[in-house]
Amino acid sequence: MKSLYIILLFIPFIILFTSCEKDEPSKVFGTVSVYPNNDPVSDGRITLSAQIIEQASFNNNFQLIDNVHTNSSGGFEITFDPVRASIYRIEFTHNDYREKYMEFTSDNFTLSKQISMQVVVKAHLDVHIKNQNSPSDSDEFRIRIKGIPNVCQDCSDSTFSVLTGAEIDTTLTYQIAGNDEITLDYTTTDNNGEIFIETIYSNPGENSLTIYY
User: Fold this and answer.
1) Do domains 26-119 and 122-212 have the same CATH topology?
2) How does pLDDT run across 8-28, given as a tens digit for each residue?
3) Radius of gyration of the chain, Cα coordinates, nearest whole angstrom
4) Tens digits of per-residue pLDDT, 166-209?
5) CB neighbour burial string for 133-165, b if at least 16 within 10 angstroms, e if fewer
6) For residue 62, how many other CB atoms are within 10 A of its CB?
7) What superfamily does domain 26-119 belong to in CATH?
């Protein structure tokens, strides 16, 4: 009977102790650098969100967990209470760089994830195509951009743009990476399929090229 009394006496303390235990905090950390020289990117906004599973129900909307800014070394760290999530998303934004995001999953309730993200400087190229002769409906002008780095998620792709007739006299705008070398391939019906190549160095911000047809 005395033993039972002692056990009953300690039950409240056991409950109190176990209720105070918490899971280890989750953490997402890493660095952001710029293509192509890998210099650190400071003052970039890092936003972490997740598709959170609550009470066995799935929500495909990303819910904000937290956001921070990168330090002078391009580093960041987000620490948060663990959540059950199907997908995590980390997004980078900055006035001088193109936006980028990464998604990942975790099999563990408590997350510890290291991220290495490479971004590109914002730039665009205006290609002015000037038709020096009277346009004909049979005229065709094909042009594409090459050399865009894979790390750029929202840059223009290398698909040919095909212009015909009067629409050849126009301006095309390409979204590109700054501080990089890019190539333009173009051909017309006047040159029997010969491909002309223009290579330019893209500066941050606005870039311009004129092609006379």
Assistant:
1) yes
2) 444 444 444 444 445 689 999
3) 28
4) 888 899 999 999 999 999 999 987 767 778 999 999 999 999 99
5) eeeeeebebbbbbeebeebbeebbeeeebebee
6) 18
7) Carboxypeptidase-like, regulatory domain (2.60.40.1120)
Four-point Cα dihedral 57, 104, 68, 206, nearest 10: -120
Strand locations in the chain (E):
26-34, 39-40, 45-54, 57-58, 63-69, 75-80, 85-94, 97-104, 112-119, 122-130, 140-146, 161-164, 170-177, 180-188, 196-202, 205-212
The two three-digit tokens of residue 210, written as one number: 């004129």
For the domain made up of 122-212, give the CATH fold: Immunoglobulin-like (2.60.40)
- Please tell me the pTM assigned to this model: 0.82
Structural domain boundaries in the chain: 26-119, 122-212
